[in-house]
Specification:
alpha/beta, six-stranded mixed beta sheet, four-stranded antiparallel beta sheet, about 35% helix, globular, binds adenosine-5'-triphosphate, binds magnesium ion
Length: about 230
């Protein structure tokens, strides 16, 4: 047990399925891998290889079909949906291609909202410090619609970190950005996760691989080819 919980993510013989009209469809099977605390990993693989599916399982959004998946000390394969939702809220920061900010709240209020969900009374000063690290503190009173795409995604990065999760999961976070903004957002994401001591699993394209990641994994025909560089 201690060996399992020692890692931030530990997957053993993991199988992930979708229920479809034509029956059960297995997307990944016999997948085993680990991510250590504070480790930052890029997840590569061609379209349809199962990157989003795997990320959703690690986030507790998709139930485990069989095998074991332990994340931040929680055995997700043993938890029902309500417990997985509580787990996700407390331990995971999520960033998607769509920014998913709450349009009726300002930048700062979007961050306060995530903290309130976790019964955290995080000081505004601290949240402004986080926005400062992302170079958008001056925008804290704006509404999402008053920001550029790159700025909105930086707010989404701040929101993912605001409640100090142990693990940040980012699924092609720069898919809606031009190349220059993409590079800026990814570099900021990696450095702010380091500053917060959060692990990172980042689905991205190999052309965008930031420096400073300590693991690169590639999903290929249901296998995770995992290269650990430290
Ligand atoms: N809700 C679903 N129901 C059934 N099949 C699904 C569902 N979501 C995804 N799939 C299938 O699962 C496989 C993996 O999809 P997934 O979205 O994980 O791929 P991906 O690696 O993230 O691809 P991309 O790079 O295009 O985002 C694909 O064959 C896809 O058609
Ligand atoms: Mg995907």
């Amino acid at each position: 047990m201690s060996e399992i919980t020692a890692d931030l993510i530990s997957a053993r013989n993991l199988q992930l399925d979708y229920a479809t009209a034509s029956g059960k469809q297995t997307i990944l099977e016999n997948l085993s891998f680990a991510l250590r605390h504070s480790q930052q990993m890029a997840l590569l693989g061609r379209s349809g290889s199962g990157k989003t599916t795997l990320l959703h399982a690690v986030a507790g959004l998709l139930p485990v079909a069989s095998g074991e998946l332990t994340v931040c000390g929680h055995a997700l394969h043993q938890l029902g949906e309500a417990d997985r939702t509580r787990f996700r809220r407390a331990h995971i920061g999520l960033i998607f291609q769509q920014f998913n900010l709450i349009p009726t709240l300002t930048v700062l209020e979007n961050l306060q909202f995530v903290c309130a969900l976790n019964q955290l009374s995080t000081a505004d000063r601290e949240l402004l410090g986080l926005l400062e690290q992302l170079d958008i503190a001056n925008l804290h009173n704006r509404f999402p619609a008053q920001l550029s795409g790159g700025e909105q995604q930086r707010v989404a990065v701040a929101r993912a970190l605001a409640h100090k999760p142990q693990l940040v999961l980012a699924d092609e976070p720069t898919g809606n950005l031009d190349m220059e903004n993409a590079r800026t957002v990814i570099d900021l994401l990696v450095s702010v996760c380091s500053n917060y001591g959060a692990g990172l699993m980042l689905v991205t394209h190999s052309s965008e691989l930031p420096s400073g990641l300590n693991a690169i994994a590639r999903l290929d025909q249901g296998s995770l080819l995992y290269s650990d560089s430290d």
